[in-house]
Write a structure and sequence with these properties.
The complex is a heterodimer of chains A (75) and B (328). Chain A is mostly helical and 75 residues long. Chain A has one domain. In chain A, 68% of the residues lie in helices and 0% in strands. In chain A, helix 2 runs antiparallel to helix 3. Chain B has 328 residues and is mainly alpha-helical. In chain B, helix 1 runs antiparallel to helix 2. Classes of the chains: A mainly alpha (75), B mainly alpha (328). At the A-B interface, helix 2 and helix 3 of A face helix 2 and helix 3 of B.
Chain lengths: 75, 328
């Protein structure tokens, strides 16, 4: 059911190593993002969490610009 | 007020960019310079600038509203790399209903809610009225919640053109179509459209009435949303872009609450049933091209519509919870 409704996409060939590189970087950005958002919600000091999230985001975006297209960064 | 007017412009740019993008992808697969995305990003950047100003010097909103908007921005920024990875894994998804696209909707919803909360507290001395910016923020939240439905609303017209051999989609899109009935509607079953619409509109209406204590704002917000959708449709039609069905019957849900002057199950039930029956009549008698519908869908639509105010009445306001805790 899920592939039918949510993963209803055009299949294209991809490199597994590239995919796993991105997945690893995504885990980093999601984890740091969750910590940052939690600190924002609980109104604690956010400087360190914000810097960590910024670094994770920069790594992900640089990879997208290299392996994709800078316009992919527009969402 | 200028500060919040700039937020209205920021969200309006996001609205224009996203509506343009949804229409664009029913005609083209890729775009070299992503102009709809650039318009969307301009709105995002203007909002980012306004948010940065608040972080530098807190002037127009409380810290929690500012943090909520920041959470929306963080979530949106997380969504971009996740969406990219999703495209590597599964290819290009020609649907608004993909999991990573929902990160964008949730993030934008949080941003709008944060700004609206800031505006609500900033103008707490004035009673919320439809002539204020409450209508704009309510409309943006409605648009954000209704955005996934653009797949069905654009898809209905595109599918009709396709089966009659009059598709305006580009060759690269047409080559991808192997199962038009499923692909054009994003693989989403047809019953999702009316049920999702009723759930979201009823929920938003009840919450606005509860928070703003005003029955007019949800009606004017829905009217403004429909008006802007018609403006967009006229522009897309003029330049030969795919157009969409405009969900005119949505207004019947807040309108019934307005006429009943109560947020009870009867007002919600009447609004939901009226929404569905008029939509079904439009569909059945070919007055306009609507997303596909079946009559049995009126049952879950009515039940869900009626349940929203019931659940709302069961949730206590935060102040009462605090009082209860103090008494205990």
């Amino acid at each position: 059911m899920i592939p039918l409704y949510l993963l209803h996409v055009t299949a294209v060939e991809h490199s597994e190593s590239l995919l796993w590189t991105f997945v690893t970087c995504n885990i980093f950005v999601v984890t740091s993002g969750i910590i940052f958002m939690y600190k924002l919600f609980t109104q604690k000091k956010v400087r360190v969490a914000g810097i960590a999230f910024g670094i994770a985001l920069a790594i992900n975006y640089i990879l997208i610009a290299i392996f994709g297209d800078p316009f992919d960064l527009l969402g | 007020m200028k500060y919040y007017r700039l937020w209205v412009i920021a969200f309006l740019l996001k609205f224009i960019g996203s509506a343009w993008d949804a229409s664009y992808h029913f005609k083209y697969l890729f775009e070299e310079y992503s102009i709809p995305h650039i318009v969307n990003t301009l709105g995002f950047a203007l909002g980012g600038l306004l948010l940065f100003q608040e972080w530098r010097r807190s002037q127009y909103m409380d810290n929690f509203s500012r943090n909520l908007i920041t959470i929306g921005y963080v979530l949106f920024l997380i969504g971009i790399p996740l969406d990219f990875t999703y495209h590597i894994a599964y290819g290009i998804d020609l649907t608004t209903w993909s999991p990573t696209h929902f990160i964008y909707y949730i993030a934008t919803g949080i941003m709008i809610f944060g700004v609206w909360r800031g505006y609500y507290l900033y103008t707490r001395d004035e009673k919320p009225a439809w002539k204020s910016m409450h209508t704009w923020f309510a409309m943006f939240l409605l648009e954000c919640l209704m955005f996934p439905n653009m797949q069905q609303e654009n898809g209905a017209i595109s599918y009709d053109q396709y089966i009659h051999g009059k598709s305006i989609a580009s060759q690269e899109i047409l080559e991808l179509i192997s199962d038009p009935a499923s692909q054009i509607f994003g693989g989403i079953p047809e019953w999702v459209y009316p049920i999702y619409s009723v759930l979201m509109v009823a929920l938003l209406t009840v919450l606005i009435i509860r928070i703003c204590r005003d029955f007019t704002i949800p009606v004017t917000a829905a009217a403004l949303y429909i008006l802007l959708r018609f403006v967009g449709k006229a522009i897309f039609a003029a330049v030969g872009y795919p157009t969409s069905y405009v969900p005119i019957t949505l207004i019947l849900i807040p309108l019934c609450f307005f006429l009943f002057r109560k947020t009870n199950w009867l007002a919600a039930l009447t609004g939901s049933v009226a929404y569905f029956l008029v939509l079904f009549a439009i569909h059945k008698f070919d007055i306009l091209i609507t997303p596909p519908l079946e009559m049995w869908e009126i049952v879950p639509v009515a039940i869900i519509g009626a349940l929203v105010p019931v659940v709302n009445s069961l949730v206590k306001p935060q102040q009462e919870i605090k009082k209860d805790k103090q008494l205990a």
